[in-house]
């Protein structure tokens, strides 16, 4: 059983590495026709977009769930 799991893990790892190597952006330094990348994000913009926004969204959803649970509990009991 252990050999089967090890073989499966090795196969998945090898497949993952192969896919990562195949998707390597080898030609990303060359601009295509119509390519207009724009300006990069600042550190504050990056943190706001990828850290603060998801945390705030999570907190809002969690608060709505808690409020809904308390309302349902109050209504039924």
Describe, in plain words, how this protein is organized in 3D.
The chain is an all-alpha fold and about 80 residues long. The model has no long low-confidence stretch (mean pLDDT about 85). The protein is flat. Helix content is about 70%, strand content about 0%. It has helices spanning about 1-20, 45-75.
Mean pLDDT: 87
Note the total helix count. 2
Distance between the termini: 51 Å
- Structural category is mainly alpha
Helix content: over 70%
Q: What is the H-and-E element order?
A: HH
Output the radius of gyration: 24 Å
Quickly list its features.
about 80 residues; flat
Concise account of the structure shown:
The protein is mainly α. It has helices at residues 2-22, 43-76.
Map the helices and strands.
Blueprint: H1 2-22, H2 43-76
